Structures are given as C-alpha cells and as structure tokens.
Task: structure prediction
Amino acid sequence: MNYHRIFRTYFLYKLIFKYVRCIHAHILHRSYTVYNAENIPTGKPFIMVANHQHGILDALALLFMIKDGRYPVFMARADVFKNKYVAQLLVFFRLLPAFRMQDVGKNRVLENEKVFATTAQLLAQHNGILALFPEGGHQERKQLGKLKKGFARIAFQTASCANFETEIFVLPVGIHHIGGLFQSKVSVCVGKPISVLTFQELYMQEPEKAQQQLLEQTARAMSSNMLDIKETTYYNEYLVLCTIARIYRKNNAAIQERYASDLAIEQAVVSRVELLKVHQETTYVELMKLTKNMDELIVSLHLSYELVCEKKHSIAKRGMHVFITILLIPIQIYAFVHQIIPFLLTSVCSRNAGDELLKVSLQLALGALFIFPLWNGFLVFILFLLEVPFSWLVCYGISLLFSIWVFFRSVSAWSFCQAWCRRQLVRLTNRSAIKEIEGILKNIFSIIGV
Result:
C-alpha cells in the first residue's frame, strides 16, 4: 500500500475537519479544555503519546488541540485496513496501520518497517505530527497500561535518519473524561515535551537501553498528567472518592482557587489516599468501608452523586432547570420528529460492533459523516422539489441544524430531570437515608481533608 497520501492535506479533508470539530465542540461533549497548551512544540516535529480509554473520542481530543495549522497523523490497528477501499479511506483521513501480532499474525508484523519509514519521513522531512496510543489498546479503567516501544523506535529511527540534526520531541498527553461516552466533559493535559536529542549519546552505544529510558520517562510524564489509579482491590472506592471531591470543588469557590481543574483535585485525592494506605492502614481501611457503604446506599436509592452532593441553596436553581426543560417540550418534539430516524439508522448500522467503544466510534463516523447530513439534506431537497420559497428553504435548513443540537442535548436534559425528581422524592419519603449519606460524606471529607 502507498502511504504517501498522508504527506498531503486535501481540501476535502479540511472541510470534514471543520465540520467534525463543530460536532465535537457542540454536540459530543459538554466541555472540552486543553491545559498547558504552551507545552505543544510550535512549528517543530513531534510524536504525541496519550492514554486511551474512550475510543475515537480520544483521537478527536488530540486532533483538535493542535492550533498551528498542522494536522496529526494517527496510527491504528492494522486489522481495520484489511479491505483495500477502507484502507485508502483511512489513509485519506491520515491514519497509518500498526501491525500487531495478535491482529495480523507474525508474517505481516515485518510490514511495520515500511510504516516506520513513512513516519520518519513525515517527521524529519515534512515537519509533521504523529499521534499514537502506546498502550496498544483502550483501557477499561482510569489507569495507565504498560506502554509499547513502538513510539520510542519511531523517535530514534527518525532522529538517526536525520543524523540527530533535526530535533524530534515526544509529547506526553493525559486525556481525562468525566461522564459517559456521550455529553461528557473532556480535559487534555499536555506534559513537557521530551527531546530525543538528550538520549543521543546513550542511543549510539546502547539503542535498546535508550529506548527503554525514553519509554519510562514518557510513562511517568503521562501518569502525572492523567488520573492514574493503580489500586486494584478498592478501585471503585477510589473512583467514588474522586467523584465526590470533584463535585465538592464545583460547589466551593475556595476549592476552585486551590485546584485549577477537576483532574487536579482528583489526583490530589488519590495521592492522599495512597499516603493513608502506606502510613495509616487502619484509617485507610475505615475510609474504604465508609466509601463502599455510601456507594451501595446511593445505588440502592437510584440516586446520582451530582445531586446528592449539591448545595442545598441550589435546589431552587435545579428546579428551574427542570421547569425550563418542560417548557421547551414543543421544540424538543420538533427535533425528535426530524432526527429520530437518522438516530435509529445509526444505531442499527453499528449494532454488530464488537464492544461498546467500537460501537460509539462507528456511530460517530457513520452518523456525523453520512447518515445525519444525508437525511437532513434529503428533507431540504424534498422542500426544494415542492418549490418552497428560497427564504423558507434557508430557514428550514437552519432549523434542522438547530434541531440536531436540541435532539442530543435534550437526552441529557431529561436524564437530569429524572434524576432530580428522584432525588426530591427520596428526600421527602426517606429523609433518614439522605441524612445517613450526608453523615458519611462528612466523615469522608474529615479523613481525606480536601
């Protein structure tokens, strides 16, 4: 296969890029924030390496953080390149195959050399950006997996081909998702770039050792820029503690000044709990029991942490949100009538996907690029055939764009309304349970001292 198409950025690709960026910003996520963007090497070639937990959403998070006019090239599993037409489409979208033995067998792994040569040319001669996920697959937990050496090999191979005259950087990145796979909050934390030139002398003498040191330094940097929960036995309890600390920060201005982001306070909580584990084991075990009891109680009552931990004076404000959501039902019905068919078509087309993350990736690709645009274009075309005045046609087209946004936003809005009503019902009918939860929360905060 000819990979040289990745050296060009086509006009059609740029159009699709802007279109998907709009969807990413306004429909896929509630918020998207990049921290420490000043660490991104401007105008210099580098390899972006990031943790991988949310399929294609992680790739989009990396893609849209680059603001200097360059478009990263990504590496993906080689098994998705089996069909030659699909492979050509993927190369057009600036993807290169990574041949892994478990995907393609031992014989085709040697084809990585051709891919690595292409990436070296991209970095050294075209001042490009390569993005990959060195864990080799997505992680089910908020935990950094073991890194593969592929990115280190590419970095040194590129530097070696250029006689170490071109400075190549490895940029460690941490991606942090809050919420589910849809309408989540995403933060991207950029670490300090690591120059491959600092390993030149070691690489000349012991290449394997240089690659290992680069890998270890990158792993440490990635871990410090993401939520990396190494605990296995009490993993769920750690997640619960991070959740309530994050909500506590949201409701407390003083805490917001102390911790710049949700990730910062979650990392602080994990660090403090780890210190308790080492130095105060009895207190640590007590904290885990309290957290587990609270989680079981909240789950049994079908409540959400967001509403359980909210400030009392915000109840009226939340109630107003519910009232406004109900008031906007006519607009939501309009959006539902127009967008339910492409939504169902997208779900049907992706139902045979292997896992949930792959399903979401397919839904995004099929829905955003094909099904929703074609369906809404078809509706506008029908009105055009009916010889509707042009001004009406334009207004209808704009209303369709707005209805897509309303359709997806209303899903999360009604989920919140349901949870809020459930919270008020429990407050009225089971006040003792609410007080028990509040008591446990007070004890937890006194222990972790956020």
